[in-house]
Design goal:
Strand content of chain B: 15-25%
Number of domains of chain A: 1
CATH architecture of chain A: 3-Layer(aba) Sandwich
Helix content of chain B: 40-55%
Organism (chain B): Mucilaginibacter pedocola
Helix content of chain A: 25-40%
Shape of chain B: elongated
CATH superfamily of chain A: P-loop containing nucleotide triphosphate hydrolases
Main location (chain B): membrane
Largest interface: A-B, 30 and 26 residues
Distance between the termini of chain A: 22 Å
Shape of chain A: globular
Number of helices of chain A: 7
Domain MacB-like periplasmic core (chain B): 20-237
Radius of gyration of chain A: 17 Å
Largest sheet of chain A: 6 strands, mixed
InterPro entries (chain B): ABC3_permease_C (IPR003838), MacB_PCD (IPR025857), Macrolide_Exporter_MacB (IPR050250)
Largest sheet of chain B: 8 strands, mixed
Strand order of the largest sheet of chain A: 6-7-8-3-9-10
Subcellular location (chain B): Cell membrane
Number of domains of chain B: 4
Bound molecules: adenosine-5'-triphosphate, magnesium ion
CATH topology of chain A: Rossmann fold
Oligomer: heterodimer
Radius of gyration of chain B: 34 Å
Number of strands of chain A: 10
Chain lengths: 225, 785
C-alpha cells in the first residue's frame, strides 16, 4: 500500500537546519498494523504527516497505492486524502463549535455524501464507538477517552483504507488507552491498515510490526508474534 | 455543507459575543454612513436628469471680460427668447423663467406664495408631469395658472382645483388650468406655481427689450440631431448683433452639466458640485473601508482560535476553496446582519441628515432596484471585509496548526499594522480638517461687519407699502417702535445690483470696473449704524439736491482714485451724481471676500426694502407688535413679514457650518469605528499575551510597566499614522482655504491638538484592555498551563 524510498525532510530556521527525515525507506502493506517508535524529536510525527499527505517531503519517493505522489500539489493531495486516510491525534483535535454528531459528520460532508446517508453512517459509527448517547454534546462536555473515541469515529466514518494515529493514547489514562487500542485492533481486523506512533511499549504490542526510528532513520524493525 | 458552515458561523458569533458586537456595530455604522452619503451622491448625480429631453435641453449663458477676467453667468436679457425662436431654426422651443411672488386670496384665505413666470413651452420642454390639465395649452392665456399638487392642496384642500379662480394681489383673477405633480427632490427648479410670462409684462407695464438687462433665465430645447457646438457657433453673436453691446458672447450650457458642472473659471467649466460628489464618494468609500478593516483585523487577530478548526477541516478533507467559501460566507452573513442594522440606522438618522444637508432624501422601500442595490452592497461589503481573512485563514498548513506551536499573531502582524495605520491616517486627516474648517468659520464670523446688525429689521415693500412709505416711516418713528428708518434697494445682507456703467474724471475708459449699487432714501448711516469717514449721509429733506447725491465706500474711493472724494461727480450714463459722503467699508455680500467697491445712490432710484432700527428702550416683542400695527394699518391685505438682519447675516455661514458639521460627523464616525477596531485588537492582544504578562509579573514587572508595554505598540502605529496624515491634511485644507480670500492661517497648533486628541482617545481605548490584563492575578493566568 505504501512504499517510501530515500525520503528526506529538512526544517530550516535562521541559524540551523534540522534533518527530520534522513533518506528514510520503508514499506507498509495493506491490512498491516504498524507501530512507529523512537525518542522524542526523531521524526515520527514528521513521517506520519508526510504519509498522511499533510506535508510534502523535500526529496525521495512516496508511492501510495501504486501512484507516485511526492510531487502532488495541495489540491490533489487533499482529494486523495479525504477518500483514503483517517487521522487520530494525541490531542483529539475536535472542533469545539460542533457537536459530537457534527464532528463525525464533517468528513462525509467534504466527500459529498447525501444528508440521509450521512445520518445513517454517523449513527452507525457512533454506535460502534459506544458514544451514541453523547451525540448532541460538545467536545468540552466529554472526558478525554470519550473525545478520543469521537475522533476515531470521525477517522473511520468515511471507511478509509488507512488510519494514521499519532500517540492516540498519549493524553489518556491506561484503561481509556486500552479501550482505544482495542478499537484500533478491531478496525485493523476488519481490514483497515493502521500506522500508529507511540511511546508506549504496551501499546506497541497491539501492532504486527514495530519500526524504530533514530535521527530520522530506521534503526530496527521488530515483527510481533 | 452550507448548513454546516452556517451552524459554525452562528455558534462562533454567539460564542464570541464581544467580538461579534464590535464587528457588527462597526460594520453597521460604517455601512450606514456610507449608505447615507451614497443617497446624497445619488440625489446630486440625478439632478434634472429625469427630463426625457435632457440631451437637448440647454440654459443660455453669457460670457464677458470684467476686471481682466472672463466671467460666465446664466441670466440673460428677456428679449433673447423671441430672437432665438425667430432666427434660429435649430432651436425647437424656448422658455424663460423668473421669480414670482404674489399674495393669493381665496375667500378670506390669504397666502403669499413663491412661483415662476414662464413661457408656455416650459411645460412641454421639461418632464414635470401634469396630474390634470393640458401641457400644451395650460399657460396660453395671461390669467392662467398651474399649481403643484401641494399648492393646490394648500389653497383648495380636497376640492378639485381645476377651473377655480384665485385672486392674485388685489388686482387680478386667475383660473387654474392644470395641476402639476409635486417637484421631485432632485431638480434645480423650485416653484409652487407657474404663471404666464405675459402677466409679468402686464404688471411691469412694459415689454423689456433691453439687451443689456440680464435678469431672467432662458432655457432652450434644440431640435433632434443638432449639435451643441454647431448652435453655439451661431448663438455666440446674438447679443452683439441685436445691440451695441460688443463684448458679450452667448453660449449654451447643457442640462447634463447644470448641476454638477456649473463652476466657470476664465470662461471654461472647471467643475462645481462634482467636486463635492467626488469628495463625498471618496469619504463614503473610506468609511466603509475602515469598517471593513476592523473586520479584517479582528478576524485575523482571532485566527489562532480559528486555526485549529481550519487544520482539522483540512485533515478531514476540506479543500482550500471550500474553506474560502466558508469564511466568505461567514463575513457575508455578518455583513447581512450589519446591513439590516445599518438600514435601521439610516432610517432613524435620515431626518437629521436631511436637515444637515438641506435635502429631502428618503429610503425608497418599494423599489426593487433599491433592494437589489442593498443586497449587492451587503455582498460587496462582506466580500471586501472577508476576502483577506478568508485567504489568510484558509492558507494555514494543518501540520503547523495541529502541532500546537502555531503563532498566527506574528505572521499577520505586518498587514494588520498597515491596516491600523490606514484607518488612523484617515481619521486624523478628518480631525485636522474639522479643526481647520471650524477655525475658518469662526475667523469669518468674528470679522467686523462694519455696521450694527443687532435690532436691525427689514420688511419687503409688498402691496401698498411703497405707496404709503412716508406715512409708515413716520408712524414707525412716532410709535416708538423704531429709532431710525431707511428705504433701500435690497436687504443689508444681499447685493442685488451691480453695474460697470459708472464713469468719473480720471477713469481709464478701457477698463470695466464693476460696482455694487445700493439705494437709500436717507438716514442710511443712522439706521445701519455705519461709520461716516468723510462728509455726511444723504438727506434730501435738508438738502433738496441730494436726490442725486451718492455715498461711496472706502473701496470705491480707492478704485476711483479720489484724493478728495467729497464733491466729486460720478456719472451713470447721462445722470450726474455728486459724492456727499464716504462710509467705512461694510460687508454686504461674502464675509470671506474683500469688500467690493460700492456706490450708494440717493432717493431718485428704486426701492424694495424698508430697514428699521428697533427702539432699544422697548423689548423686541413690544417693538414688533407696534411695527406690525403700523404695517397692517397701511397694507392690510398682506401678512406682516419681517427679517432680522443678524439672522440673515448668520445664513451666510450656512455652507461652511454645514461643511464643519459634516466634517466633524465624519471625523467622529471614523475615529469611533477605528477605535472600536483598536479596542478589539487590544482585547485579543491582551488575551494572547496573558501568559507572558503573568510570567513578567511573577518576575517583578509593575502594572504600569505592563500597561505601557502593551499600549506602546499601538501608540507607535497611531504616531506613524499621524506622520502620514499631517502633510495630507495640510495639502487638502490648504487648497480648501484657497477658495476664500479672507482665510485663517493654518497654525501648527491645529496639528498639535489633533495629535493630542487622537493620542488621548487611543490611549484610553487601548489602555483599558492593557490595564485589565496587567491587573490580572498571575496565579490565575498561569494555572491554565
Ligand atoms: N516546524 C518545524 N520547524 C523546525 N523544526 C521542526 C519543525 N517540526 C519539527 N521539527 C524538528 O524536526 C525533528 C523531528 O520532529 P518530530 O515532530 O517529527 O519529532 P517526534 O519524533 O514526533 O517527537 P515527539 O515524540 O516529541 O513528538 C525535531 O528535531 C524537531 O525539532
Ligand atoms: Mg510527535
Amino acid at each position: 500500500m505504501i512504499k517510501i524510498t530515500n525520503l528526506e525532510k529538512f526544517y530550516r530556521t535562521e541559524e540551523v537546519e534540522t534533518i527530520a527525515l534522513n533518506k528514510l525507506s520503508m514499506e507498509v502493506n495493506t491490512g498491516e498494523f504498524v507501530a512507529i517508535m523512537g525518542p522524542s524529536g526523531c521524526g515520527k510525527s514528521t513521517l506520519l504527516n508526510i504519509l498522511g499527505m499533510l506535508d510534502d517531503p523535500d526529496a525521495g519517493s512516496y508511492v501510495f497505492n501504486g501512484t507516485e505522489i511526492a510531487h502532488f500539489n495541495e489540491r490533489k493531495r487533499a482529494d486523495l486524502r479525504k477518500h483514503n486516510i483517517g487521522f487520530v491525534f494525541q490531542s483529539f483535535n475536535l472542533i469545539d463549535e460542533l457537536t459530537v454528531f457534527e464532528n463525525v459528520e464533517l468528513p462525509l460532508i467534504y466527500t459529498g455524501v447525501s444528508s440521509a446517508d450521512r445520518v445513517k453512517r454517523v449513527e452507525e459509527v457512533l454506535d460502534k464507538m459506544q458514544i451514541m448517547h453523547r451525540r448532541n454534546h460538545y467536545p468540552q462536555q466529554l472526558s478525554g477517552g470519550q473525545q478520543q473515541r469521537v475522533a476515531i469515529a470521525r477517522a473511520v466514518v468515511n471507511k478509509p483504507k488507512l488510519i494514521l494515529a499519532d500517540e492516540p493514547t498519549g493524553n489518556l489514562d491506561s484503561s481509556n488507552g486500552n479501550e482505544v487500542m482495542e478499537l484500533l485492533t478491531d478496525l485493523n481486523e476488519q481490514g483497515t491498515t493502521i500506522i500508529m506512533v507511540t511511546h508506549s511499549e504496551h501499546d506497541a504490542r497491539y501492532s504486527h510490526r514495530i519500526i524504530r526510528l533514530l535521527d530520522g532513520q530506521t534503526v530496527m524493525e521488530n515483527i510481533m508474534v | 455543507m452550507f448548513k454546516n458552515y452556517l451552524k459554525v458561523t452562528w455558534r462562533n458569533l454567539l460564542k464570541n459575543k464581544g467580538f461579534t458586537a464590535i464587528n457588527i456595530a462597526g460594520l453597521a455604522v460604517g455601512m450606514a454612513s456610507a449608505a447615507l452619503i451614497l443617497f446624497w451622491v445619488q440625489n446630486e448625480v440625478s439632478y434634472d436628469q429625469f427630463h426625457e429631453k435632457k440631451d437637448r435641453l440647454y440654459q443660455m449663458y453669457n460670457r464677458s471680460v470684467f476686471d481682466g477676467k472672463l466671467w460666465c453667468w446664466g441670466t440673460t436679457p428677456k428679449v433673447m427668447r423671441s430672437s432665438l425662436k425667430q432666427d434660429y431654426p435649430q432651436v425647437e422651443q424656448v422658455a424663460r423663467t423668473t421669480n414670482a411672488n404674489f399674495l393669493f386670496t381665496i375667500g378670506d384665505k390669504h397666502l403669499t406664495l413663491a412661483g415662476n413666470h414662464t413661457d408656455p413651452d416650459f411645460l412641454t420642454m421639461f418632464s414635470f408631469p401634469l396630474v390634470k390639465g393640458n401641457a400644451k395649452t395650460a399657460l396660453n392665456d395671461m390669467k392662467n395658472i398651474v399649481l403643484t399638487e401641494k399648492t393646490a392642496k394648500k389653497l383648495f384642500g380636497d376640492q378639485d382645483p381645476m377651473g377655480k379662480t384665485i385672486k392674485i394681489d388685489s388686482t387680478d383673477y386667475f383660473t387654474v388650468t392644470a395641476v402639476m405633480k409635486d417637484l421631485p427632490n432632485n431638480t434645480r427648479f423650485d416653484f409652487e406655481y407657474l404663471m404666464p410670462w405675459s402677466y409679468l409684462e402686464k404688471t411691469d407695464n412694459y415689454v423689456d427689450k433691453n439687451w443689456g438687462n440680464n435678469s431672467v433665465q432662458t432655457w432652450a430645447l434644440l431640435k433632434p440631431g443638432v449639435t451643441e457646438a454647431a448652435v453655439n457657433r451661431q448663438v455666440k453673436n446674438i447679443t452683439r448683433s441685436h445691440s451695441d453691446i460688443k463684448d458679450i458672447d452667448v453660449f449654451m450650457h447643457p442640462a447634463t452639466k447644470w448641476h454638477l458642472y456649473s463652476k466657470f473659471e476664465n470662461g471654461k467649466i472647471v467643475g462645481g458640485k462634482i467636486e463635492a460628489v467626488r469628495l463625498f464618494s471618496i469619504i463614503a468609500g473610506f468609511i466603509l473601508l475602515i469598517a471593513c478593516i476592523n473586520f479584517m483585523n479582528l478576524s485575523t487577530a482571532r485566527s489562532e482560535k480559528r486555526a485549529k478548526e481550519v487544520g482539522i477541516r483540512k485533515v478531514v478533507g476540506a479543500s482550500k476553496t471550500s474553506l474560502i467559501s466558508q469564511f466568505l460566507g461567514e463575513s457575508i452573513m455578518i455583513s447581512l446582519i450589519a446591513g439590516v442594522l445599518a438600514l435601521v440606522i439610516v432610517q432613524v438618522s435620515l431626518p437629521g441628515f436631511n436637515n444637515l444637508t438641506d435635502k429631502k432624501l428618503f429610503i425608497p422601500w418599494e423599489s426593487t432596484t433599491f433592494w437589489l442595490l442593498c443586497l449587492s452592497f451587503i455582498i460587496f461589503t462582506g466580500v471586501l471585509s472577508g476576502s483577506y481573512p478568508a485567504l489568510y485563514l484558509s492558507a494555514f498548513r494543518p501540520v503547523k496548526v495541529l502541532k500546537g506551536t502555531f503563532k498566527a499573531a506574528n505572521a499577520a502582524i505586518s498587514p494588520r499594522k498597515v491596516l491600523v495605520v490606514t484607518q488612523f491616517t484617515f481619521a486624523i486627516v478628518l480631525i485636522i480638517s474639522t479643526i481647520i474648517v471650524r477655525e475658518q468659520l469662526e475667523y469669518a464670523q468674528n470679522r467686523d461687519t462694519g455696521y450694527k446688525k443687532n435690532n436691525l429689521v427689514y420688511t419687503f415693500m409688498s402691496g401698498n407699502i411703497g405707496k404709503n412709505y412716508a406715512l409708515i416711516r413716520n408712524e414707525l418713528l412716532t410709535s416708538g417702535a423704531a429709532t431710525a428708518v431707511s428705504k433701500t434697494s435690497a436687504p443689508m445682507t444681499e447685493g442685488w445690483s451691480d453695474t460697470w456703467g459708472f464713469s468719473w474724471e480720471g477713469k481709464n475708459e478701457n477698463e470695466k470696473l464693476d460696482f455694487n449699487v445700493y439705494n437709500t432714501d436717507g438716514s442710511f448711516t443712522k439706521t445701519m449704524g455705519l461709520k461716516v469717514i468723510e462728509g455726511r449721509d444723504i438727506d434730501a429733506d435738508k438738502y433738496p439736491s441730494d436726490s442725486l447725491a451718492i455715498l461711496l465706500n472706502e473701496a470705491s474711493v480707492k478704485v476711483m482714485g479720489f484724493k478728495q472724494p467729497i464733491g466729486q461727480i460720478v456719472k451713470n450714463g447721462d445722470t450726474k451724481l455728486t459724492v456727499v459722503g464716504v462710509v467705512k467699508d461694510f460687508i454686504l455680500q461674502s464675509p470671506y471676500e474683500p469688500v467690493r467697491p460700492m456706490v450708494i445712490q440717493g432717493p431718485k432710484s428704486w426701492f424694495n426694502v424698508i430697514h428699521y432700527k428697533l427702539n432699544e428702550k422697548n423689548t423686541t416683542a413690544a417693538n414688533l407688535k407696534l411695527a406690525e400695527a403700523v404695517f397692517k394699518k397701511f397694507n392690510s391685505e398682506y401678512p406682516f413679514d419681517y427679517h432680522f438682519v443678524d439672522d440673515e447675516y448668520a445664513k451666510k455661514f450656512k455652507d461652511e457650518q454645514r461643511t464643519g458639521t459634516l466634517a466633524s460627523l465624519f471625523a467622529g464616525l471614523t475615529i469611533f469605528i477605528s477605535c472600536l477596531g483598536l479596542f478589539g485588537l487590544a482585547t485579543y492582544m491582551a488575551q494572547n499575551r496573558i501568559k507572558e504578562i503573568g510570567v513578567r509579573k511573577v518576575l517583578g514587572a509593575s502594572v504600569m510597566g505592563v500597561t505601557s508595554m502593551l499600549s506602546k505598540d499601538f501608540l507607535k502605529l497611531v504616531g506613524f499614522a499621524f506622520l502620514i496624515a499631517t502633510p495630507l491634511a495640510w495639502y487638502f485644507m490648504h487648497s480648501w482655504l484657497q477658495g476664500y480670500t479672507y482665510r485663517v492661517p493654518i497654525s501648527i497648533w491645529v496639528f498639535v491638538s489633533a495629535a493630542l486628541v487622537t493620542t488621548i482617545i487611543s490611549i484610553v481605548t487601548v489602555s483599558f484592555q492593557a490595564v485589565k490584563a496587567a491587573l490580572t492575578n498571575p496565579v490565575k493566568s498561569l494555572r491554565s498551563e
